[in-house]
């Protein structure tokens, strides 16, 4: 730990540039931001302003056998937040993530285009962003997870995740999922993908989540469409969702977007009104500064017919 501190201080003293120490590349980067956030216009929760900060350390090198080795640490809010180790080679990359990443399926739960955040993000009914968030069909997993990503084969890549015992003592089976991404070389701007994974929600109770998407970029426009399904052992807990989005790059610095997301609940569910989310976003970048924000609304959140909420978030971020 003392050696790591010395390396970190040395990198900071070097004006945050990459340095080489014993054949290892060491770099430090960071960011600071001011956010104005009101996740629920219907509920006032205090000061809307907050500060964000991130200090990232990365170190990489290569073994005598030609295997790339890299470690990354993020200090966020004064605490060690995210950290992982990566092995890489001609065969692809294998990440062991200690904290702070998504599984292969979770990383593509909604990849429809947006200029800041997804249509279902930002909003929640208690204004804390800890409970009361909209329903989204995503992946499982969590901390201490393996993630493999293959090299590209004519535009196709495969990623897979594995977490022992699903991260929960009450779950007997390990979690694993799979995702495929294909950007055909003969059709510039087109990307299609699919992912699936099985999540245990209790002993001998599980659900299979899957999603498929298509995106196409031409000129300054990017459009996308996505369908997801959650097939639960308890049928009344099954769900389906559709999402679409469009963004337009006005110029190299300014982008605007609109996105939509709808979740359909099984008719047998206690709350089964379609959850519909809509959002508009914008983002402006100038050098290391980015000003971005979104205004979102969610109708019938989590299937509750009376659960209509609106929220907004604006963020000024500096990267260094």
Short note summarizing the structure:
With 320 residues, the chain is mostly beta strands. The protein contains one helix and 17 strands.
What is the fold's blueprint, element by element?
Elements: H1 2-13, E1 19-21, E2 24-38, E3 49-62, E4 68-76, E5 79-89, E6 92-99, E7 145-149, E8 156-163, E9 175-182, E10 190-202, E11 205-218, E12 221-232, E13 239-249, E14 254-265, E15 275-286, E16 289-299, E17 309-319
Antiparallel strand pairs: 1-2, 2-3, 2-17, 3-4, 4-5, 5-6, 6-7, 7-8, 8-9, 9-10, 10-11, 11-12, 12-13, 13-14, 14-15, 15-16, 16-17
What does this structure look like?
With 320 residues, this protein is mainly β. The protein has one domain (2-319): Porin. It has one helix and 17 strands. The protein has one helix at residues 2-13; strands spanning 19-21, 24-38, 49-62, 68-76, 79-89, 92-99, 145-149, 156-163, 175-182, 190-202, 205-218, 221-232, 239-249, 254-265, 275-286, 289-299, 309-319. A 16-stranded antiparallel β-barrel has the order 2-3-4-5-6-7-8-9-10-11-12-13-14-15-16-17. The longest helix is centred in the first third of the chain and has 12 residues, at 2-13. Residues 1-22 have low confidence and may be disordered.
């Amino acid at each position: 730990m003392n050696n790591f501190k010395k390396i970190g201080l040395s990198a900071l003293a070097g004006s945050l540039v990459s340095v080489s120490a014993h054949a290892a590349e060491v770099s430090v980067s960071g960011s600071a931001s001011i956010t104005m956030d009101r996740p629920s216009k219907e509920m006032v929760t205090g000061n809307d302003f907050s500060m964000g900060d991130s200090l990232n350390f990365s170190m990489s090198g290569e073994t005598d056998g030609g295997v790339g080795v890299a470690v990354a640490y993020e200090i966020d809010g004064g605490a060690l937040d995210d950290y992982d180790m990566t092995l890489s080679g001609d065969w692809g990359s294998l990440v062991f993530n200690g904290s702070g990443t998504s599984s292969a399926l979770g990383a593509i739960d909604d990849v429809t285009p947006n200029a800041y955040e997804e249509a279902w993000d930002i909003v929640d009914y208690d204004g804390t962003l800890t409970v009361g968030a909209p329903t989204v069909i995503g992946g499982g997993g969590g901390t201490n997870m393996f993630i493999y990503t293959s090299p590209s084969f004519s535009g196709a890549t495969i990623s897979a995740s594995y977490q022992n015992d699903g991260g929960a003592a009450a779950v007997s089976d390990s979690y694993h999922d799979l995702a495929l991404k294909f950007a055909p070389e003969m059709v510039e701007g087109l990307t299609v993908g699919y992912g699936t994974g099985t999540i245990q929600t209790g002993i001998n109770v599980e659900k299979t989540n899957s999603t498929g998407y298509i995106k196409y970029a031409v000129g300054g426009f990017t459009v996308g469409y996505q369908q997801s399904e959650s097939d639960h052992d308890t049928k009344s807990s099954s769900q389906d969702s559709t999402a679409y989005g469009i963004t337009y790059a006005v110029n190299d610095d300014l982008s605007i977007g609109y996105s939509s997301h709808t979740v359909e609940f099984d008719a047998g569910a206690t709350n089964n009104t379609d959850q519909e989310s809509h959002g508009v976003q914008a983002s402006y970048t100038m050098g290391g500064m980015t000003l971005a924000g979104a205004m979102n609304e969610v109708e019938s959140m989590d299937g509750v017919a009376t659960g209509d909420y609106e929220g907004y978030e604006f963020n000024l971020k500096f990267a260094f």
